Amino acid sequence: MRGPLHDTLSRTRSHAMYGVCIAFTVFILAILVLVTAYLIYLGFSALSVDFFTQIPSGDPKNPGGMKNAIVGTGVLVGLASLVGVPLGILTGVYLSEYDTNSWLASPVRFVCDVLAGVPSIVVGILGYELLVVPLGGFNGYAGAMALAFIMIPIIARTTEEMLRLVPNSYREASLAMGASKARTIFTIVLPAAMGSTITGIMLAIARVAGETAPLLFTALSSRYLTLDPSRPFPSLTVQIYNYARGPYEQQRKMAWGGILILISLIFALNLIVRIISQRVQTKTE
Amino acid sequence: MPEMTIPAHAFSVSTPGSYSIPRPEPVPAASQAVASHFTHLELARERHVLHIRDFSLFYGKKQALHAVSMSIPERKVTALIGPSGCGKSTLLRSINRLNDTIPSVSVTGRIEYQGRNIFDRGTDTIGLRKKIGMVFQRHNPFPMSIFENVIYALRIAGERNKKVLTEAVEKALRGAALWDETKDRLHGSALALSGGQQQRLCIARAIAPEPEILLMDEPCSALDPIATSKVEELILALRARFTVAIVTHNMQQAARVSDYTAFMYLGRLVEYGPTNAIFQNPRLTQTEEYICGRFG
Prior knowledge:
The complex is a heterodimer of chains A (285) and B (296). Chain A is an all-alpha fold. Chain A is built from twelve helices and no strands. Chain A is 75% helix and 0% strand. In chain B, 32% of the residues lie in helices and 23% in strands. Chain B has a seven-stranded mixed β-sheet with strand order 1-11-10-4-9-8-7, sandwiched between helices.
């Protein structure tokens, strides 16, 4: 007799489903391990002291290092964060705390969602039209602004979502004690959501640190170590792009090294995010 | 709303502190809703810090309070009781204008504090809330240290003197009967405290700026019986320094901690008087039925 306790068919199905899930998980994991191993294998051989201390030599046989690109990416991402983080957070605060359902908030929210999904090359073209052509040439500022433009919607939406998770009782308690709304937001609500907001910021930074397309049309690249963003500006991603499609064996090797550095950077950022969010979680429990 | 009758025994039984008097003239109503409630005369002999007059409140088009009129006596505990949705929390949250944070709320009538209607356009809600503290249903200390929680209101007021702040923390924590349990961990997280301790911390936080009135919105509903009895003891002690208005679902609690009790039903104030009179000798059948657990 087949009752609910002896339903072998559905039990078999259930086991089969479990097996399929495991198989696919292992498959994905294997691909990831393969890619990472290949990357480390090829990337490590390109790394040397020169890689971090030299700028490109211009000689394809002995290409020097990528110091300029590493510094360049740091400067670009830093400048982008300087603009993108405050704007993103304030937009998120506006959406969550001030006009949640006003005529302005809904379109802003919608636009943020659309912008977060816009292909980054579109942002590059936009930066080219708005900041490269009027300024008369490729420059680092345009690159940083293009990156900031990608960061803002991501940070705004994560900040909004995280602020919404802050219990309303915090806001009421603060207001009931005579705090102004602004004070409530900046001393209670934002700090309460700080861990997860920082997570959002870090993820946005990790995302733009790996962008190539927006920089191709704005910052372009430079062989020189420069801190002057008003001129064409180097970056890891564009340099990797240039080297990787070039004909020279040594330069392609350098590209692998650059990729390894970039991946490590993003991995480190994600790790920091994990640690921060765990710390915050244990603190609030 | 059904016609309310005065129970016959209201005139025959005479307990100390209650008087057998006929029902006073009805309070003139501002709106169609008749303010047909009964206020015991003992209240007239108190000094009042706050007067609610013909106060109605609307959530959008839905009317939540109907021409409520009552006065809150100074340095007494006044309990607001009534079934869920009767408007007692809404009334409490109107007193410090916390309902302002809900966009659809509109009000008519007055709440007078220090001779002014708090709904007047020029009212400084921030200053008002400094004089009228509040403790919430769910203990909600901020995710910071115990010390910082207690001095939050003082920080808002711009107090920087470390000595003043330290003294204020001790005074407030002693006032909330929490000092002995927390004096060694003032800079530890407030969220590490137990639920009952957190609620007493919220009380300390509310009394630290020395308000005149303390509003409590079901302060024990999330606490276990032992923590509840501690908070109740505390409420009785607070009466010496503050005027307390407390909303509670628990009628035994109202009977234990309050001097005066107001029974509300369907957004209206039904009967308001000394707690022992309300519980032992209510004038209106509706109050009696609720007290006896026949509805609500």
